[in-house]
Design goal:
246 residues; mainly beta; Thrombin, subunit H; 1 helix
């Protein structure tokens, strides 16, 4: 931690006095040293060891007003939506656990970001073959992802529940879930209905990743903790949400 000293002059005047006394006070300002880590980082890759249970959720923002007299309802859908995750790792000995503990500590609480996807879905249900890219410009907030470059004339090229990953130029890596089956036409074009909505505006030609998809997340708390039982077995868990929402 760096410490910088500055000097300020304090003028003190007394009522009825004919002079003003000048004093000097030293003000110490502590400037914390920022992490040198380049974010986002990757979680540990330990063969055969992933979360024991893994919860993904899609959080929506809906305003609601209910009449206290008639109980009639009014709902307002707002554009905010995001993935959240909760991971509980299996019981581990210290050799494996310490890798996860170091990973979590290296995030500096909510400050750092990391990449993570659905552990149960590394590959899509549909073929998603070809070399798909974004077709044209797509505005932030859209729930449609237009693609080209996919294999032509494929029925159910994408299946509801599949994931795609896109990264806007200068943006963060984003993961989206496909809501409906989608076919490709004779030109290899398709329109994917996705959630969460597109975060950053996408430009034509951006690569659309269809396997091992991951998004950018940050911890929901500034504290990372782990438990060690009497048999020296470690329990590690954490919660996170999508990072850098626009």
């Amino acid at each position: 931690m760096a410490v910088r000293a500055t000097q300020e002059t304090l003028l003190i005047s007394s009522r009825g006095a004919s002079h003003v006394r000048s004093t000097q006070e030293v003000l110490l300002i502590s400037v914390p040293t920022m992490p040198t880590t380049s974010f986002p980082i990757l979680p540990p890759t330990i063969s055969g060891l992933g979360p024991q249970d893994f919860t993904m959720a899609l959080e929506n923002v809906v305003g609601e007003s209910v009449s206290p007299f008639t109980l009639s309802e009014q709902e307002q859908l707002w554009p905010g939506d995001m993935f959240t995750i909760e991971a509980n790792l299996p019981p581990m000995l210290y050799q494996q656990a310490e890798q996860w503990i170091a990973f979590l500590n290296g995030l500096y609480g909510k400050y750092g970001t990391f990449l993570m996807g659905d552990y149960n879905r590394p590959t899509p249900q549909g073929p998603m073959s070809g070399a798909p890219v974004v077709n044209g410009a797509i505005a932030s907030g859209s729930n449609q992802l237009l693609i080209r470059g996919a294999s032509v004339g494929v029925t159910n090229w994408a299946v509801a529940g599949d994931y795609v990953q896109v990264t806007a130029t200068g943006g963060l890596q984003r993961m989206h879930k496909v809501l409906q089956n989608a076919n490709t036409d004779a030109g290899g074009h398709a329109t994917l209905q996705v959630r969460p909505s597109i975060r950053e505006a996408l430009t034509d030609g951006i690569t659309v990743v269809t396997a091992n998809c991951a998004g950018t997340f940050r911890l929901t708390e500034n504290k990372s903790s782990w438990k060690i039982d009497k048999n020296r077995v470690y329990a590690v868990s954490f919660k996170a949400r999508e990072a850098g929402l626009q």
